[in-house]
Specification:
alpha+beta; 3 helices
């Protein structure tokens, strides 16, 4: 670990996780205290958001929203 807290992840680990330049990575904390590095595709949505996924629908367009804010609807 560097003095400013940066770590080097071995190339084999990055390839296995599908992580490359510009990729986002996430850390998952387990009940036993271990921390797991995961790639974007393995990221879990927190339970308090999971039930809300896909419920919003398409919603109004930008023009429709502007009309509503101007009182034109």
């Amino acid at each position: 670990m560097s003095a400013d807290g940066q770590i080097t992840i071995p190339k084999e680990v990055l390839e296995q996780l599908g992580i490359g330049p510009g990729s986002k990575v996430y850390f998952r904390r387990h009940a036993d205290g271990t921390i797991e590095l995961v790639g974007e595709e393995d990221r879990e949505v927190p339970a308090h958001f999971r039930d809300l996924l896909g419920h919003a629908g398409p919603g109004p367009s930008t023009d429709e929203i502007m009309d509503m804010t101007r009182g034109e609807v």
